[in-house]
Amino acid sequence: MSIIIFTDLDGTLLNQEDYDYKPALPVLEKLKDCQIPVIPVTSKTRQEVEFLRQEIGLSDPFIVENGSGIFIPQDDRRFLVTS
């Protein structure tokens, strides 16, 4: 069985008052150690999420603009569709 975590950003991964993500860092690190992808799903733009992912240290796919765009890093082979 594979586990994937999908998370909103505003008020979930990011503190609603000041967008602080530091309280989530220990859990994100544990998830990374367990090779569990954390996929942000948000209304934010690709550029906003790419900046945030780099700042937080996320490298998994992400979904932006309420599902309008799904971005999977080219070197990520976990989500390849094969026939």
Descriptive labels:
83 residues, alpha+beta, two-stranded parallel ribbon, two-stranded antiparallel sheet, 14% strand, globular
What does this entry show, briefly?
The chain has two helices and four strands.
Walkthrough of the structure:
This protein has 83 residues and is an alpha+beta fold. It starts with a strand and ends in a 12-residue tail after the last strand. The mean pLDDT is 91.
Topology record:
Layout (H helix, E strand, L loop, with lengths): L4 E3 L17 H9 L4 E3 L5 H11 L5 E3 L4 E3 L12
Parallel strand pairs: 1-2
Antiparallel strand pairs: 3-4
- Write down how many β-strands occur, each being a DSSP E stretch of 2 or more residues: 4
Spatial ordering of strands, largest sheet: 1-2
| Secondary structure tally, helices | 2
**What would you call the shape?**
globular
Low-confidence stretches: none
The pLDDT mean sits at 91
Structural class: alpha+beta
